[in-house]
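Q: My collaborator sent me two sequences in one message, no labels, and asked for predicted structures for both. Can we handle them in order? The first one she listed is below.
A: Yes, handling them in the order given. First sequence, followed by its structure tokens:
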Amino acid sequence: MLKFLILGVLGLLIVVSLLAAALGTAGWWVLVAVAVLLLVLAIHDLVQRRHSILRNYPVIGHLRFLLEDIRPEMQQYFIERNYDGRPFDRDTRSAIYERAKGQKEEQPFGTERDVYRPGYEYLVHSTAPVDPLPDEPRVHIGGRECTHPYDMSLLNVSAMSFGALSANAILALNGGAAKGGFAHDTGEGGISEYHTRCGGDLVWELGSGYFGARTDDGGFDEKQFAEKAAMDAVKLVSLKLSQGAKPGIGGVLPAAKVSPEIARARSVPVGVKCVSPAAHRVFSTPRELVLFLAHLRELAGGKPVGFKLCVGSRADVLAICKAILAEGTAPDFIIVDGGEGGTGAAPLEYEDHIGTSLTEGLHIVHNALVGTGLRGQIRIGASGKVSTGIDIVKRLCQGADYTNSARAMMMAVGCIQAQLCHTNTRPVGVATQDPKRMRALDVPDKTERVYRYHRATIAQALQVMASMGVHSPAELNAAMLRRQVDVSTVHSYAELQPGLRPGQLLDEPPADWASDWRDADPDRFGVPRATAA
């Protein structure tokens, strides 16, 4: 490992310098002193617990922090690139790291925003702001058929599997969730021992591979599911239909990465390639999906059950709504995953060109539920590049009830966006199964960072709402969020994306929804059809 090579080189340098100093001039003692100081620094870096990168890369890791101090150009170019290739702006990056570290966030010299740039968005503040809420409001999840509802935080840990993340990263995320009182989504890789050790509330995500509740031939195992869903840590069950960063495809974990720990969590054989198919085997129509969700709720003892999707066809969303109405059973929540979501394992074409944006996806799902009279029964979560208090408030304005964050939570744990997720060589031990690299991630320190990041971000969201004159999230609406359409035109989202009235689709669908409503079939998922101009 590199850190031991550095120690060895420094030790050899000291020995050679001592010999040279003994045999040569007094100037060699300067080199001895420098080498000794570097060795002391290297030892300090190895034993400290604050910075994972210094524990893995003693001495030379300080170059990274030197570049951080050369703000903003060098930091943005060399260090702070977002791991799906699209960088956060400087203020967002700074806010995440500073909140996680408990540092002061205020920025000098005022705004750097280009207010006339098309696409620029802003929230409308009130001339008569109010005091922020003293405590975070919770989102009650659980419909008529749910006997064990759950009160969700406005910001939670989004789906990231054990296998994609290291054991220590999972422990830190779950510990932060336990301390901060928010939920931790397991990702589709199953429930590992690291998800339950710290006591955080879990959203168990079940994907098309049914990992953790899987038969030998890759089907759904009801008995395994019921046993694990009964765990106290599991508060909700989320059925994954698609993922924002790669909708329409599954995943593959190479055989070499299927360790005994990962095999136990996923209910798969050790050392055998683990495949998550693109489509589910236990349902193929909207009606079958709705009935399967109801069955999962029964097996889970009445805990909230819902599904996650990256929206594709609007008609498919409406078909699910029709199936809910026809069968008289509804999911307790729907998580809308935006196409801007990130992952370490998606083809570039999927990351950049497939999947509806979170803004459009929320508009479709929220209004489909409103228009069919189902919105009061079903809560909506939003995930996809949610990082700041502003992101939370914007998504609530657009129809979400709560939000989930993945990459910002990874950054709170210490991720530096090295974009090496697929290589198993991530330098700070977040997205790797290399035990030597993983060991550098100090769980207690990173747990505290996750907790601090969540607490500060929620506080900022509540402060923003107070500045808007809002006493609770229920008062937020699309008219409060504005978008710069061009240099001289600004519209609110209420104008850009007019909403439906409760039950409007059942009475008389508006013209721009009529064709999709007509095509929506509860007994099939369809392909969008061309319409006459």
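Q: And the one she listed second?
A: Here it is, processed independently of the first:
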Amino acid sequence: MRRSALFRNFAPLQILLVAVAACVPLLLLGSNWLLQREFDENRALRNATSATFETRYTLEQLLKLHLDLETAERGFIISRNAAFLAPYNEAEGRISAVLEQLGSTRELKEEEPLYRRLVVESRNKRAFAGQMVTLIKEGRDDEARRAVASGQGKLFMDRIRALVAQIDTLRQEQLRARLEASERDSRHLRRTTIGLHTAVLFLLFIAALLGMRINSARTVALSRMRESNERQSAIFDSADDGMMLLDASGRIRSLNPAVTKMFGYAEDDMRGRAVGMLFKEAPREEDVAAFLRTLALDPTRSRLRHVREFEGETSAGTHFPVEVALSTVPGETQRSFLAVIRDITKRKQVEQMKSEFVSVVSHELRTPLTSIAGSLGLLAGGAAGELPERARKLIGIAQANSARLVRLINDILDIEKIEAGKMTFDIKPVPLASLLEQCAQGNAGFAAEYGVQIVVEPVAAGVAVMADEDRLIQVITNLLSNAIKFSPEGEAVRITVVPGELAHRISVAGLGPGIPDPFRSRIFQKFAQADASDTRQKGGTGLGLSIVAEIVSRLKGEVSFDSVAGEGATFHVDLPAAPKQ
């Protein structure tokens, strides 16, 4: 109780401290963002100032070039000295480039019409000057002087000056507005930054107070944690089962004394080595690492203990059966896995004794039961003469129950053969169309007893699976028997095949009560029954689906089912596709 109360009081303080600690960097980030924005604004202001001065310089250049053009033109008109044409041609050649440079730096919409007019007036001025030079070269001096005296060239030049002045004024006004806006933003930034820094200082003060309160609680929690770790270490070291911590590559990080006792190695000889050293058939390190990686990435699987059986190998080379349970270790910064190893030699011996006992009893019972069932069948068929009605009913009951016992014994023997590895499988391509038709015909009489039909949906030509034909017939027969017994009278059990690229799916669907949710996880276990009374009424042994699962597994396939309570069930058998001929 005291410990629970401690953590209940400790948790809100931690949450509050985390909240305060989270707010501090957010405020600092906000302050940093404001400062960065100020830096960006200053940079943009500097660029704008530089662009304005560059534009003013370009405008001065443009105006000077037009003045040089006009001066050279008039000097040539007055003196007819060809030396004036050199500055004239230079100015004429540079004006277009300067105009293009000025056009590339336009920023304001108001500049666009002024710039277009400036281009037109510059073109007019240069055309007029070119015309005057041409007249002088042709000896039409009087005509050139009269044109100059008309003031047309001066008018063009005055317009150029006015347009240059307007563009320059616009740029200066724009720069002045940006300077004023920047000053306002700077004042606002200073106030906001001071507020943020004040809030940060306040939060740091609160965090310090919380830290002082948490420190004492943390000291107690760490003390309790040390006690818990010591208890866990004691359990780890004293456990009868071997326990090992593995890293992500499957190498042994730590182990308890039970492992060294079980396998006969010294602890130092095992630490840091691959776990495969403990098994007769050691898996490859890359396969172990891949499996552990898959286990760690799957949150649904990582919470479970994965149990498998292996053949262990001691340091002396002797072998014994072991069961390995593997699970992830939560809370580790470096991914770790707990492997629990249990010596199951005694359990295997008990299972072997049980198996031999069941096998002997089953074999000893099957022969007399078969004989009894046959004799009862002969009696029911009138081999000993006509029987009274009451005797005939009793014989029929006895015959049905003896037949049921024979089926149960056969199923038990099949399970024992499969688990002992004594059931042989002749794997070869098996065409599904003919096999399914054979199964339907073989179970037609049984279906008729329940008033149920068997419908085989058309199977595509050439669809075949890799399987043992007799065992596959046994699988389909068991599924059909199940579906027939639980389907309502007048309904149909359907067999369908869905071909795939690597595997083909055989589905047996029947209507009926379906499979209850609590029963689904153990439906393929031996003697599993959803409703024992109903199963006895239907004549089931509880081994049929277990046999199906075992056979399909050894055929390298998978068995699954879909079911909705009250709407029946569909069982699926996925088997490897046979190579196409």
